[in-house]
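QA checklist item 7 of 12: single-chain prediction sanity check.
[x] sequence parsed
[x] length recorded as 440
[x] structure emitted
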Amino acid sequence: MRRSAIDGSYFSVMVGLGEFYIPAFVLAVGLGEVFSGFVATLPQMVGGVVQMIAVPGARWAGSAKRWSLICVAIQAMSFFPLFIGALVGAIPAWAVFLSATLYWASGMAAGATWATWISSIVPARLGGRVRSRYFGIRQRALQVGQLIGFIVGGLLLYGVVQLAPADAAHDATLLVFAAMFAGAGICRGISFAYLVSIHEPERSAREDRRVGPIELLRRMVSKGHGRDAKLLGYMFLVTAAVNVSGPFINPYILKQLELNYLVYAGLVGTVILGKMLALPVWGALGQRVGARRLLWIGAIATIPPVAVFAITTDLRILFAAQFIAGAAWGAYELGTWLLQLEHLHERERTSLMATYFLGNTLAMGLGTLAGGWLLSALGTDAGAYVTLFWVSVALRTMTLGAVPMVAGKVGMPRLSHAAALARRATTLFQTLGPDITRPR
């Protein structure tokens, strides 16, 4: 379990240093604002279709671990075309799209089997409290890695723009992008090495059961049953609503607000910081009041921050909104992850996670296409972005109607929990490793 946290840390540095900067790289090579938004999500949609081979792939490989390792190795190599394009100084849109698609397809195909693998290492028999505590700590380690990777990338880009001569700044910026993509691939390689060393309990992937889309839809509409399918369906709705505006935050910050790379890194990094600082609190709260309340908190709290971008351009307020957004998404992501472990049957988990990745990326793609169409139709000026943000707020609010089907109607945590919650959160802040041991 400790090695899994370290693996996750290097994985998240890759995300912060590489994945997060692909849209900015697209802008740097002159491929446009709308394509910058598209490349953040549409490759995920295509990758979601490709990664459906996860279930037969795991059977072919013989275990969830072996299939995950194959996919992780492919993901590490997916940065190579971007690295070459940055070195050369130009790259066609199709090559960026192909590289991003390979990145997402391999990552999601690994994730589907990794969910089955990690659930056997942190099994349900240890109780929801252990899972809540462990994944709260692990998610915190991931946010630390993302923040480090993203801030390092932002500082490098800002530094080269400030120090390089004006006529050489563009070429120097692309060289920094090349170094960042190389570093991202290396971090995934280190993550691969730690994954190799992680124990996998004896279990045959051939025993996994496939759940088809028709059966999943039947579970979604059934009354009193199918909480696994209803949870996934709700997450699809949230993803679609978020991605109407989410992918276009990057071009809005860099092009409309005309902020430099350092402020850009600070704004996006503040989301990561908010998650990182809040996750110990959510982990402690999850131990006390359960994952369903975490989901309610996250579902409600993720809505207001996007409205702030529609109301003001004051950087102080935007930074505060980003911090709140990060904390809120920490609650949402931890709550949904714990509920997935709770509701998805072990023998069906790989299949359901593969289906989730497919449905999630389709929802992401539909949301992005809708947002891109609206942005293009309105003229890609500041007013168009404001409209886009308000549309996303309205859609996110509408998704709250689906939460009771997943989490039921629950009361919010009482004020009397505050003291115990603070003690547990403090403990989690102080322990990022010593108590994370593999159960015997």
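[x] summary fact logged: Residues 305 and 325 are 6 Å apart (CA to CA).
[ ] second reviewer sign-off
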